[in-house]
Amino acid sequence: MTKKQTPRIAIIGAGPGGLTLARVLQVRGLSAMVFEQEASPTERSQGGTLDLHQDTGQKAIRMAGLTDEFRAVARYEDQRSRLLDKNGTILLDEDPGSAGDHPEVDRTELRAILLDSLASGAVHWGCNLRSLRPMSDGCHELIFENGLRETFDLVVGADGAWSRVRPLLSQAVPLYTGVTFIETGLDQVDEEHPAVAQLVGHGSMSALAPNKGLSAQRNGHGHIRIYVAFRCPFKWETEAGFNEEQPEAARAWLLKQFADWHPSLQALLQECNDHFVVRPLYMLPVGHRWDFHSGVTLLGDAAHLMSPATGQGVNLAMLDAAELGWAISERQSLDEAIHTYEQLMFPRALAANRFADESLNVFISSDAPYGALTHVRQHFISGQALD
Q1: H or E stretch including 53?
Q2: Which of 140, 318, 365, 380 gets the highest tally of CB atoms within 10 A of its CB?
């Protein structure tokens, strides 16, 4: 687009997708305003480690011109994947080493790279979107809880599962997948929990039994993040007596659910910290899409929320963002750019969401771990992570 055609662009959400879009636009000579409801970059934990795939997340990093910055913080040594049964028997142990194409990076460090690459003032913190109103000239007015009102030529919803932008395009809402995670973790594992560190290794470990599982993934700075998975009705764990606000009782409740598991796996729960978070898993309907709407589009979880079983979510969000940014800079109009982007994104998201749903239904299922083992051998060996 020429200088005269430079559009006013709003990005709702300062996650990896929204920040990648802002960065790619900046690289291409355009600018955007990013609005984030959190008060600051450090308001809350950004979550665990991510594996960025060569043809999606890393491609977006290259398009954003941040390859060197990414390599400086990526953990190429933490790509190992293990699958165990509840008796502690190792069923699969994949170690691609430094040759693997999905290095790990902590969410906090990835976000810092992206934030540091943006012009000062590009991100507006403490801006919680209240409503989005179409204007007669084709623009859209954004109204925020803090009283701010701004009008833009293009609004991009990069605001996650419960997007405030999505209702303008689609009536779809996230659906409970039938699986709930309970998250906890361990710090200073190599020094204080050497047996657990050895069990998890340099990467991730998943132990499965019918309709439940224990997963652990190595993060940076000596931290291991632990996920306890159950296939269960919504809020079953609460109704069955789990209370995340009572750590000792919560730990005892979890150990009871895994009473017949190998002691090395029970140690993940016995030694974990006192912080527990219940995370029901949601997804948008497989094949979610919308009719073209001038001046508005979605990316990442706002567009195609899927289960984390395949590790594709953040990778697709970043690729969505990079391709949308490129299209905006190359096409003659915003409408043409949106149309070009959405026609690339919809089929890619359909395939990824379908595969993520299939994978979750195999990993946390009545025939786990054996169906999962077959699935992993068919789809994950060489080139993808077992997350």
Answers
A1: none
A2: 318
Distance from the Cα of residue 4 to its chain's centroid: 37
Amino acid at 113: I
Q: Does some domain include residue 186?
A: no
The pLDDT of residue 284 is: 98
In a domain? residue 249:
no
Contact 14/38 with Cβ under 8 angstroms?
A: yes
Number of domains the chain contains: 1
Domain ranges, residue 306: 3-79+104-174+284-363
Going by the annotation, the residues of the binding site for FAD are 51, 107, 301
Per-residue pLDDT at 97 exceeds 80: no
What is the per-residue pLDDT for 4? 44
Residues annotated as binding site for NADPH? 44
Has this prediction a pTM greater than 0.85?
yes
pLDDT confidence of residue 387:
39
The mean per-residue pLDDT over the stretch 77-96 comes to 89
Q: Where are the beta strands (DSSP E) in 95-201?
A: 104-106, 123-125, 129-134, 140-144, 149-152, 154-157, 175-186
CATH number for the domain that contains residue 15 = 3.50.50.60
Section 283-295 average pLDDT: 97
Amino acid in the structure at residue 193: H
Q: What average pLDDT does the structure give for the chain? A: 92
In the annotated binding site, the residues are 44, 51, 107, 301
Record the tokens describing residue 250, joined without a space.
């919560």
Cβ–Cβ < 8 Å for 161, 282: yes
Residue 134, beta-bridge partner list: 140
| Strand 33-36 versus strand 149-152 pairing type | unpaired
Q: Where are the alpha helices (DSSP H) in the chain?
A: 16-27, 57-63, 67-73, 107-116, 189-192, 194-200, 236-239, 247-257, 263-270, 301-304, 313-330, 334-363, 370-379
- Residue 368, domain member (yes or no): no
Stretch among 44-53, 74-83, 243-252 having the lowest mean pLDDT:
44-53
